[in-house]
Protein backbone atom coordinates (compact mmCIF):
# COMPACT_ATOMS: atom_id res chain seq x y z
CA UNK A 1 0.00 0.00 0.00
CA UNK A 2 1.33 3.42 -0.90
CA UNK A 3 2.71 5.01 2.31
CA UNK A 4 0.83 8.28 1.78
CA UNK A 5 -2.54 6.64 1.07
CA UNK A 6 -5.47 6.66 3.46
CA UNK A 7 -7.58 3.54 3.78
CA UNK A 8 -11.25 4.52 4.04
CA UNK A 9 -13.42 1.68 5.33
CA UNK A 10 -16.90 2.70 4.25
CA UNK A 11 -19.82 1.84 6.53
CA UNK A 12 -18.92 -1.55 8.07
CA UNK A 13 -22.13 -1.47 10.06
CA UNK A 14 -24.67 -4.05 11.19
CA UNK A 15 -27.35 -2.49 8.95
CA UNK A 16 -25.27 -3.50 5.89
CA UNK A 17 -23.69 -6.70 7.22
CA UNK A 18 -26.62 -8.51 8.80
CA UNK A 19 -28.28 -10.82 6.27
CA UNK A 20 -31.64 -10.20 7.97
CA UNK A 21 -31.38 -6.43 7.38
CA UNK A 22 -33.26 -5.01 4.40
CA UNK A 23 -29.93 -3.42 3.42
CA UNK A 24 -27.74 -6.43 4.22
CA UNK A 25 -25.15 -7.27 1.56
CA UNK A 26 -24.83 -10.96 0.68
CA UNK A 27 -21.16 -10.20 -0.08
CA UNK A 28 -20.26 -8.64 3.29
CA UNK A 29 -18.66 -11.69 4.96
CA UNK A 30 -16.25 -12.10 2.03
CA UNK A 31 -14.70 -8.65 2.51
CA UNK A 32 -13.83 -8.91 6.21
CA UNK A 33 -10.42 -10.58 5.70
CA UNK A 34 -9.25 -8.31 2.82
CA UNK A 35 -10.33 -5.19 4.72
CA UNK A 36 -8.51 -6.31 7.87
CA UNK A 37 -5.31 -7.03 5.88
CA UNK A 38 -5.47 -3.60 4.25
CA UNK A 39 -6.09 -1.93 7.62
CA UNK A 40 -3.05 -3.69 9.07
CA UNK A 41 -0.95 -2.31 6.22
CA UNK A 42 -2.43 1.20 6.47
CA UNK A 43 -2.16 1.25 10.30
CA UNK A 44 -2.85 4.78 11.63
CA UNK A 45 -3.79 5.96 8.13
CA UNK A 46 -7.11 4.08 8.40
CA UNK A 47 -10.43 5.86 8.87
CA UNK A 48 -13.84 4.21 9.23
CA UNK A 49 -17.10 5.82 8.17
CA UNK A 50 -20.68 5.31 9.30
CA UNK A 51 -23.94 6.20 7.63
CA UNK A 52 -26.36 7.79 10.09
CA UNK A 53 -29.79 9.22 9.28
CA UNK A 54 -30.17 12.99 9.47
CA UNK A 55 -31.97 14.22 12.57
CA UNK A 56 -34.27 16.39 10.47
CA UNK A 57 -34.08 15.02 6.93
CA UNK A 58 -34.77 17.53 4.18
CA UNK A 59 -35.69 17.21 0.51
CA UNK A 60 -35.20 13.77 -1.02
CA UNK A 61 -33.77 12.44 2.27
CA UNK A 62 -37.19 12.86 3.92
CA UNK A 63 -38.78 10.71 1.19
CA UNK A 64 -35.89 8.24 1.34
CA UNK A 65 -36.26 7.64 5.07
CA UNK A 66 -40.02 7.40 4.68
CA UNK A 67 -39.42 4.62 2.12
CA UNK A 68 -37.00 2.85 4.49
CA UNK A 69 -38.49 3.50 7.98
CA UNK A 70 -36.48 0.66 9.58
CA UNK A 71 -33.32 2.72 9.01
CA UNK A 72 -34.65 5.95 10.52
CA UNK A 73 -33.20 5.35 13.97
CA UNK A 74 -31.04 7.45 16.33
CA UNK A 75 -27.33 7.47 15.47
CA UNK A 76 -26.56 5.40 18.59
CA UNK A 77 -29.01 2.63 17.69
CA UNK A 78 -27.31 -0.81 17.64
CA UNK A 79 -28.40 -1.24 14.00
CA UNK A 80 -25.86 1.45 13.08
CA UNK A 81 -23.01 -0.01 15.18
CA UNK A 82 -19.80 -1.08 13.51
CA UNK A 83 -19.62 -4.85 13.13
CA UNK A 84 -17.44 -6.44 15.83
CA UNK A 85 -14.94 -7.80 13.29
CA UNK A 86 -14.18 -4.27 12.05
CA UNK A 87 -14.87 -2.12 15.12
CA UNK A 88 -11.17 -2.07 16.08
CA UNK A 89 -9.78 -0.91 12.71
CA UNK A 90 -9.41 2.75 13.65
CA UNK A 91 -10.04 5.23 16.43
CA UNK A 92 -10.98 7.69 13.66
CA UNK A 93 -14.68 7.29 12.80
CA UNK A 94 -16.53 9.75 10.57
CA UNK A 95 -20.34 9.58 10.82
CA UNK A 96 -22.37 11.47 8.21
CA UNK A 97 -25.99 11.36 6.93
CA UNK A 98 -25.04 11.01 3.25
CA UNK A 99 -24.24 8.16 0.87
CA UNK A 100 -20.98 9.77 -0.19
CA UNK A 101 -18.53 10.09 2.66
CA UNK A 102 -16.26 12.65 0.99
CA UNK A 103 -16.85 16.04 2.59
CA UNK A 104 -15.52 18.33 5.31
CA UNK A 105 -15.46 15.66 8.04
CA UNK A 106 -13.43 13.13 6.05
CA UNK A 107 -11.28 15.84 4.46
CA UNK A 108 -10.39 17.06 7.97
CA UNK A 109 -8.80 13.64 8.58
CA UNK A 110 -7.13 12.99 5.21
CA UNK A 111 -6.37 16.47 3.89
CA UNK A 112 -7.88 18.12 0.80
CA UNK A 113 -6.38 16.08 -2.09
CA UNK A 114 -5.34 12.73 -0.65
CA UNK A 115 -4.82 9.31 -2.16
CA UNK A 116 -7.77 7.32 -0.85
CA UNK A 117 -8.00 3.55 -0.92
CA UNK A 118 -11.71 2.75 -0.69
CA UNK A 119 -13.19 -0.46 0.70
CA UNK A 120 -16.50 -1.34 2.30
CA UNK A 121 -20.17 -1.38 1.56
CA UNK A 122 -22.19 -0.86 -0.48
CA UNK A 123 -20.24 -0.71 -3.72
CA UNK A 124 -23.30 0.49 -5.64
CA UNK A 125 -24.23 3.23 -3.19
CA UNK A 126 -21.83 4.63 -0.62
CA UNK A 127 -18.57 3.48 -2.26
CA UNK A 128 -19.37 4.84 -5.73
CA UNK A 129 -20.81 8.06 -4.23
CA UNK A 130 -17.63 8.58 -2.19
CA UNK A 131 -15.31 7.76 -5.09
CA UNK A 132 -16.93 10.14 -7.56
CA UNK A 133 -17.21 13.07 -5.14
CA UNK A 134 -13.63 12.67 -3.87
CA UNK A 135 -12.23 12.34 -7.40
CA UNK A 136 -14.17 15.44 -8.43
CA UNK A 137 -12.55 17.29 -5.53
CA UNK A 138 -9.07 16.26 -6.72
CA UNK A 139 -8.37 13.16 -4.64
CA UNK A 140 -6.70 10.12 -6.20
CA UNK A 141 -8.85 7.05 -5.66
CA UNK A 142 -8.08 3.33 -5.63
CA UNK A 143 -11.16 1.14 -5.22
CA UNK A 144 -10.29 -2.34 -3.96
CA UNK A 145 -12.51 -4.67 -5.96
CA UNK A 146 -12.40 -7.67 -3.62
CA UNK A 147 -12.75 -5.57 -0.46
CA UNK A 148 -16.06 -3.96 -1.45
CA UNK A 149 -19.49 -5.53 -1.09
CA UNK A 150 -22.44 -4.60 -3.23
CA UNK A 151 -26.13 -4.89 -2.50
CA UNK A 152 -25.98 -7.79 -4.97
CA UNK A 153 -23.10 -9.27 -7.00
CA UNK A 154 -24.66 -7.78 -10.16
CA UNK A 155 -24.90 -4.30 -8.64
CA UNK A 156 -21.31 -4.62 -7.38
CA UNK A 157 -20.11 -5.37 -10.91
CA UNK A 158 -22.17 -2.51 -12.36
CA UNK A 159 -20.72 0.00 -9.86
CA UNK A 160 -17.19 -1.23 -10.60
CA UNK A 161 -17.87 -0.79 -14.32
CA UNK A 162 -18.97 2.82 -13.73
CA UNK A 163 -15.92 3.62 -11.58
CA UNK A 164 -13.60 2.04 -14.18
CA UNK A 165 -14.61 4.85 -16.55
CA UNK A 166 -12.70 7.46 -14.51
CA UNK A 167 -8.97 6.74 -14.86
CA UNK A 168 -6.57 8.09 -13.82
CA UNK A 169 -8.59 9.71 -11.03
CA UNK A 170 -10.20 6.39 -10.05
CA UNK A 171 -8.46 3.06 -10.54
CA UNK A 172 -9.56 -0.43 -9.58
CA UNK A 173 -7.21 -2.92 -7.93
CA UNK A 174 -7.36 -6.13 -5.91
CA UNK A 175 -6.17 -6.45 -2.33
CA UNK A 176 -3.09 -8.35 -3.57
CA UNK A 177 -2.25 -5.54 -6.01
CA UNK A 178 -2.65 -2.85 -3.34
CA UNK A 179 -0.53 -4.77 -0.84
CA UNK A 180 2.04 -5.87 -3.45
UniProtKB/TrEMBL annotation:
InterPro entries registered for this protein in UniProt: Isochorismatase-like_dom, Isochorismatase-like_hydrls, Isochorismatase-like_sf
Keyword Protease (UniProt): no
Keywords: Hydrolase
MF (Gene Ontology): hydrolase activity
Organism: Nocardioides alpinus
Protein name per UniProt: Cysteine hydrolase
Isochorismatase-like domain ranges (all copies): 6-167
Domain of life: Bacteria
Signal sequence, start to end: none
Amino acid sequence: MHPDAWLVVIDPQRIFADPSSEWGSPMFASIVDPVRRLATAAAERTVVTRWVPARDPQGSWAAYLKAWPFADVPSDDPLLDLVPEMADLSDEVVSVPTFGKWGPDLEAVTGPTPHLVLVGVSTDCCVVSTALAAADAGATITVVTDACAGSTPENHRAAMAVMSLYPPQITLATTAEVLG
